[in-house]
Amino acid sequence: MPKIKVMPPNLANKIAAGEVVERPASVVKELVENAIDAGATKIDVYLEEAGIRSIRVLDNGSGMSPEDAVLAFERHATSKIENERDLFRIETLGFRGEALPSIASVSDLVLQTSEGREAGVLIHFRGGKKVSEERTHARKGTEVHVRHLFFNTPARLKYLKSINTELGYSVDFMNKIALSHPNIAFRLIHGDRVLLQTSGNGDIRQILASIYGLDVAKKIHEGSYEDQFMTIKVYLAEPEVYRTTRNYMTLMVNHRVVQNRDLIRAIADGYEAY
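Predicted structure:
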């Protein structure tokens, strides 16, 4: 009997989920970024038990046809790249087509979507296997409901941290995605508590006030620089507003939150004398 075997798709999905789905915040990130790429101007995120019990993401984006919704659960299926050249001009937040099948493989997932012109579709997956598919009346946009994350991979569930810590990861992501997309209205609700709400009117100062409080926002000053290659905008707090970690420094390039040690160090060095 041979020792080397081709893995079944469900097992391969679960391994891929380790790259995409590490914790509830990973699911929130993938689903919210998909909603942004779909042109949504309003995105609501509902969490129960920090997302371990339930994650529900609703958007008013373009939605999907029933045929595309089914294809979205296939590995490597994507609408965002067509050839190798596209890899060098990516303008979306995601492109791999891994998120939905990976999330579905480790959860009980229901997707409901419509392009708004005709009947939508509701698809139910549990543990990577399609349970049902039916046509349904749905508003334009997409709703994804992920329940019982890691129910079939208890080892992954075991290594999650406390509810407050896991919730903190999702809050941190939502704060930063709101700052990087001020023209989108975001809401993050945990249980019956609204943890973040932005208007989507493009005013970054309002978002800073929503995240850090009005007193801190009043002590943040705006600066800018522009040349033929780039435009830079900065929002700098007065030295009396300080935090114990560098996690409160947020860098964005072309609406994408990035990490860069050199830039973070430069910012920290600029404040060192204070």
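Summary: The two ends are 69 Å apart (CA to CA).
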